[in-house]
Design a protein that fits this description.
Layout (H helix, E strand, L loop, with lengths): L1 H6 L3 H4 L12 E8 L5 E15 L9 E6 L1 H14 L9 E3 L6 E3 L2 H16 L6 H14 L4 H8 L4 H7 L16
Antiparallel strand pairs: 1-2, 2-3, 4-5
Helix pairs in contact: 5-6, 6-7
């Protein structure tokens, strides 16, 4: 589920991804970044956008957005389609029916099963679908040194306080509880 991490999307959003997305052209944009020496540099941002996805709590006229993801996720999406092979289902993430071999779009619970079963075994700790969103927000802010507003926009939150209070896991550097062990 590399695109879940790259886009910061929810499981209900991830299941809407169409396999045609691997044919989309990248969007390139010149941006200013600060290098490790504190100097401003010009760089090229290269990302992909999905088709329109219905968001959390969205009704027919509700909130919609296009997810953004990077080249790393595009690589793995293409790889998945190679492994999956040809079928008529337009969705990226599918399951094969045991009875007749037909392929259909995964349900939201499928992502839970993958996380609780497969990913938990691989990682060695409990994994849940929202962990991908938390991880992406934390990486953007804590390790890539971008603003919380950048993470907010990627995750699709209306208010930056949601991103800050529920998704960004801070380093333990200023943990005042250390004083309890004097």
């Amino acid at each position: 589920m590399p695109h879940s991490h790259s886009t910061g999307c929810r499981r209900a959003e991830a299941r809407q991804l169409l396999k045609e997305v691997v044919d989309y052209e990248p969007k390139e944009k010149k941006i200013k970044i600060i290098d490790e020496d504190g100097n401003e540099q010009e760089a090229v941002s290269k990302s992909y956008q999905t088709h329109t996805i219905r968001c959390k709590g969205a009704s027919i006229v509700g909130k919609q957005r296009k997810l953004k993801f990077g080249e790393d996720a595009m690589f793995w999406l293409k790889k998945w389609l190679e492994v999956r092979g040809e079928d008529d289902c337009p969705y990226m993430f599918v399951i094969k029916q045991k009875k007749d071999g037909s392929v259909r779009q995964v349900g939201e619970d499928t992502f839970n099963g993958w996380c609780h079963g497969l990913f938990t075994q691989i990682v060695g700790r409990r994994v849940h679908p929202h962990l991908f969103r938390e991880s992406r927000a934390t990486n953007i802010v804590v390790y890539e040194h971008k603003s919380a507003e950048v993470a907010q926009k990627l995750l699709g939150h209306n208010d930056v306080s949601t991103t800050k209070n529920h998704y960004i896991i801070k380093k333990d550097e200023d943990d005042e509880s250390d004083e309890a062990f004097i």
